[in-house]
Amino acid sequence: MKGMNYQKYAAYPVVDISTRTWPDRTITKAPVWCSVDLRDGNQALPIPMSVDEKIAMFKLLVSIGFKEIEIGFPSASATEFAFVRKLVDENLIPDDVTIQALTQAREHLIRRTFESIKGAKNAIVHLYNSTSRQQRDIVFRMGKEEIRSIAIAGTRLVRELKEASGNPGIRLEYSPESFTGTELEYALEVCHAVMEEWGASATNKVILNLPSTVELSTPNIYADRIEWFCRNLRDREAAIISVHAHNDRGTAVATAELAVMAGADRVEGALFGNGERCGNMDIVTIALNLLTQGVDPKLDFSDLPAIRDMYRRCTRMDIHARHPYAGELVYTAFSGSHQDAISKGMKAHTKSAEGIWNVPYLPIDPQDVGCTYEAIVRINSQSGKGGIAYVLDKEYGIQIPKWMQPDFGLAVQDVTDRTGEELSPEQIHDLFQKEYIGAKEPYLLRKCHISWDEEDPESNDEVATIINCSIQGPEGDLSFKARGNGPLDAFVRGMSSQTGLDFHVDEYVEHSIGHSSDAQAIAYIRISCADGRLSCGSGIDSNISLASIKAIVSALNRLR
Q1: What is the pLDDT of residues 191-205, one digit of tens each?
Q2: Which of 263, 439, 483, 525 has the smallest count of CB within 10 Å of its CB?
Q3: CB-based contact 393:425 (threshold 8 Å)
Q4: Is the pTM of this model over 0.70?
C-alpha cells in the first residue's frame, strides 16, 4: 500500500485559554433543543420530503417534545414556502412551539421569509452569513468589514420587518456560518455588531448560534472556543448561546456535550444524525446520553421503534444496525461472555430493591425506549452456554441448570458451526426438544406405574416406593418391578438390574413450566456410570415423578 500524504494538512489552531473551566463541569439539566430535521436534514436528502411528509415529520417532532423546530428555508423554494404556510394557515403549530425559518442575509430572501411566517404566533428568523477566512477569501472575495456589514444590514432589516409586523413573538437567531473556520476575535466582533443592531438585552435576547459547520478539530478545542466566546461576550445575559455541530470527524455528539459544559444554552441537531455530508449532531443520542446519567432530557424517546419507522418513511433514509440506542442490534449480544454477564445482570436487577439500572453491557434499559428484552441475546457460533440458557428461559420458561448448560451448548455449537447461521429462539427450542425430550432410542418408556407400600410405614425411607415399568429396548421389551426410597431410586434400580448398566443420578433439578393449573413439569438429570461416562437428560410431563423418570431415559439414550 502507498503511504498517505499527511503533510498536505495543517493542525487546527488551539485556543489560548489556559484557565478553562469546562472540564470540571457536568451537565445537570437539558439544554434548549432545536430540531433541524425539516431544514438541514431535508436539504441533505436525495429526494427531499414532500409537503405531506414534512407535515408528518413536524407532528412527530412535536410529539417528541421539541419546542423549537426549524421548519425550512422558505425563501429557497415553492415547496418550502407552501409547507410553512400550511403550518400557519391550518393552525398546526401548538402555542408552546416556536417555528424557525432560515434565511441568508439578503434583502429579498429576508422579505420572503417574513411573508412565509406571517400569522405565526412564535417564530425565529434564523439569519446567517459566512464569516470564515476560507469563505471570505475564496468564495466571496470580501474583507472583514464587508462581511460584517452584511450581517448588520440583515439584522437591521429583520428588526424593521418585525416592528412592522407588530408581532412580539418574532425573535432573531444569528449564525456566523463556518464559525469553526472563523478567527475567534472576528466572530465575536461580528456578533457584537449584530447584538447592537438588534438592541439585544436581558429582556430581548438574541440567539447566537456558533456552528461547527464543518467539524475541523477535536471536541475539546471547540469547547475552548465556546468558553472563550462566552467569557468575552460583552453582555452575556443578552444572548442565548446555541451550537450546531456537524459530524465530519465523527464526534458531533461529544462536540455538543462539551460545548454545553463550556457554557452553551441551546443545541441544534437532527434525529439519528441526518444532515449534510456526515450529518448533524444526533439529537437522539445526546438526549439519551443525558437520560443514562439521571438527567431528564425533556424529550420523549420512549417509543423509539415508532420514531425510527416514521423517520424512515419520511426521509427514505436508513439507520445503521449499530447506531447508538436506535440500531436494531445495539441491545443484542452474540458473544458468550457478554451473554452470560447480561443474563446474570438481568436476574440481579429483578431482585434489586433500589431500582437503579445496573446491567453489564446495557447502559440503558431497552424497555425505556420501547424495545423488548427478547432480542437482547441472540445465538450464533460466537455464543456461549449462558446466552443459550437465557433465550430458553425468557422465551419458553425452560430453566436449564448451570451443570447442564455446557452439554446443550455443545449441541447448539455443533449446529451453528455447521450452518454458519444465527439460530432463532424457535430453532433453539426445537433443538432442545430433539436433543433431550425427543430422544427415543435405544430406550422408549411405554408404561410406568408408581405405587407406595402402605403395609410397612417404617420402611418409607428405604424401599416403600414400588415401580412397574414396560420399556422398549434395543433387544426387545423390558418389564420390571422394582423398589426404592422414591420413584427415581426405584427406576434406577430396576433399569440397572435389567440392562446391566451401573449408573446413578448425581444431579437433579425440576420446575414447572407456566403458572396455570395445567402447567407441566420439567426435570433435568445427569447420570454418571461406573465406567466414568456422564450424560444429561430432560423429561416433561404433567406428573413430576414421570417427568423425572423420562429425564433418566433421555440421559440413558444420550450415553456415548
Answers
A1: 999 999 999 999 999
A2: 483
A3: no
A4: yes
